Design the sequence.
């Protein structure tokens, strides 16, 4: 039996300093992934017309390695929209599973074999910072409180069972992903992660969490802005059919 194809979707916006290292790290795990989980790895860079030339660098990397693909988008519309475009690109081709991974080096490629192996008993595998064995490095107290608070908030509003609903290091089985993006998505930014997890849980998907250690970026700056924070506050309530301040009716 031949190896199944797995696609790692890597959204980029001004990641010129990080992209080469990230793609190299992903693809050097190929042999380990193939041996342990029966997959061959490819990478799709989804670039939102980066001013720093990341898109051009991605094209050069693709010319040097046939396992790298590039999807150019005309403008920056948010992390969720970039991932959605990458997912639809993957679903139009014969990939057995699709992964999410940051371009900035915060997600360790060494975790790829374990994440893919966990897919044997799951439809969705989450790389989790907030289960035993997981964690974060080089985050200040403010960033830690924001991340923990966002996770607890999303779990409370939507009844999510996973401990790390906002994390972006994931593996989706193809069949599940087709169902998740079959209808229009609500979130366009970072809250996209919460929405897809919520949709997966509602669909009865088998979800597993694998511990990862999140390493804050060494080069560049975070793209998280106040618009993303506000969306993260609103989206769970919109998904739940409630609005902040609305009273629940007595049963």
Sequence:
């Amino acid at each position: 039996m031949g190896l199944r194809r797995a696609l790692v979707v890597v959204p980029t916006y001004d990641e010129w300093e990080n992209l080469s290292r990230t793609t190299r790290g992903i693809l050097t795990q190929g042999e380990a992934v193939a041996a342990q989980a029966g997959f061959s790895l490819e990478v799709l860079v989804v670039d939102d017309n980066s001013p720093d030339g990341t898109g051009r660098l991605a094209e050069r990397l693709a010319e040097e390695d046939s396992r790298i693909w590039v999807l150019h988008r005309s403008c920056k519309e948010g992390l969720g929209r970039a991932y959605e475009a990458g997912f639809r690109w993957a679903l139009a081709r014969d990939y057995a599973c699709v992964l999410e991974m940051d371009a900035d080096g915060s997600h360790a490629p060494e975790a790829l074999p374990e994440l893919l192996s966990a897919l044997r008993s799951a439809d969705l595998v989450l790389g989790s910072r907030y289960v035993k064995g997981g964690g974060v490095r080089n985050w200040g107290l403010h960033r830690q409180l924001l991340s923990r608070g966002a996770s607890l908030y999303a779990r409370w509003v939507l009844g999510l069972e996973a401990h790390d609903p906002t994390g972006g290091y994931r593996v989706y089985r193809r069949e599940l992903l087709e169902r998740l993006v079959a209808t229009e998505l609500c979130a366009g930014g970072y809250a996209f992660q919460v929405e897809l997890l919520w949709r997966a849980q509602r669909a009865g998907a088998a979800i597993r969490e694998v511990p990862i250690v999140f390493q804050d970026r060494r080069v560049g700056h975070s793209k998280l802005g106040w618009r993303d924070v506000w969306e993260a506050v609103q989206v769970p309530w919109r998904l739940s059919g409630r609005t902040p301040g609305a009273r629940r009716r007595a049963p």
